UniProtKB/TrEMBL annotation:
Keywords, alphabetical: Acyltransferase, Transferase
Molecular function per GO: acyltransferase activity
Compositional bias annotation for Low complexity: 243-254
Compositional bias annotation for Basic and acidic residues: 219-240
Polar residues bias (residue ranges): 255-264
Region feature Disordered, mapped onto this chain: 219-264
Start and end residues of each Phospholipid/glycerol acyltransferase domain: 41-159
Name recorded for this polypeptide: 1-acyl-sn-glycerol-3-phosphate acyltransferase
InterPro entries with a match to the protein in the record: Plipid/glycerol_acylTrfase
Organism from which the protein derives: Streptomyces olivaceus
Length: 264
């Protein structure tokens, strides 16, 4: 299947965004040979800065295969940004609504038309204290199994040093280096003939995230934690600690009240 042309809006976005990116960050980009020359495919990318979608889009734009991102629906509604999002073919995500699944249908359609859809499987900026990829959500796995398209794991590092996660001010100096490494497509063929259950989607997601993490290990020259950071597990653990602290404090308060009554 042929590739989709880049188009006016993507070229306009490149004209606007590339000059400041070139000024602000150096580039160490590898693995472009693993980006398919033709046909639809998915990239699974780690997310550690509000700036990294621009840095990653710059990387893939230079391969000639522009990515279609899944983005919050509010960005599409008005103004120049909305026009650019629609014109570049980005895919709106309607969270907590009856249209929530439409993004996955649109992603499947885009892949079947021969386009690239870029997924941030973590769903948000990583909360891992050391910036490693967290556990992933199953959207990329669902589209991959439905279309049987190549899934290219991509890791990036450096935009998080320019603008750390959840920071409000960038660290402009010294000039940072944006490192990107795309690996070979993940082999998911052993999953294709199985029923698409929640357990299967979770297993495939773990395989994809492990591949992304391996690329980041190569970039950083370090080994990732054996168990990825899980925000859901952390929330449960935090509630458990809070409840435990409250239960330990309760006897102390009761004892203090009794002592005051006795002294009276």
């Amino acid at each position: 299947m042929p590739r989709r042309r880049i188009g006016f809006w993507y070229r306009l976005a490149a004209v606007i965004c590339k000059p400041p990116l070139v000024v602000l960050i150096k580039r160490d980009w590898r693995g472009m040979e693993n980006i398919p020359a033709d046909g639809g495919f998915i990239t699974a990318v780690n997310h550690n800065s509000h700036v990294d979608p621009l840095g990653y889009a710059h990387y893939q734009y230079n391969t000639g295969r522009v990515p279609r991102f899944l983005a919050k629906s509010g960005l599409f509604r008005k103004g120049f940004v909305g026009a650019a999002m629609r014109g570049t073919g980005q895919i709106p995500v309607y969270r907590e609504s009856t249209d929530a699944l439409s993004a996955f249908r649109a992603a499947i359609d885009a892949v079947e038309r021969g386009e690239c859809v870029a997924f941030y499987p973590e769903g948000t900026l990583t909360r891992d204290p050391d910036g490693w990829p967290m556990t992933g959500k199953t959207g990329a796995a669902r589209v991959a199994l439905q279309t049987k398209c190549p899934v290219v794991p991509v890791a990036q590092w450096g935009c998080n040093e320019l603008l750390p996660p959840y920071a409000k001010k960038p660290h402009l100096l010294p000039r940072k280096t944006h490192q990107v490494l795309a690996g070979p497509p993940v082999d998911l063929s052993r999953f294709y003939d199985r029923e698409m259950t929640a357990e299967l989607l979770k297993e495939v997601t773990e395989v994809i995230m492990a591949a992304v993490t391996r690329q980041l290990e190569e970039i950083r020259g370090e080994q990732a934690p054996e168990t990825p950071y899980d925000p859901r597990r952390e929330r449960i653990e935090q509630r458990r600690r809070t409840q435990q602290a409250a239960s330990q404090a309760a006897p102390s308060r009761t004892h203090g009240t009794q002592a005051e009554g006795q002294s009276t």
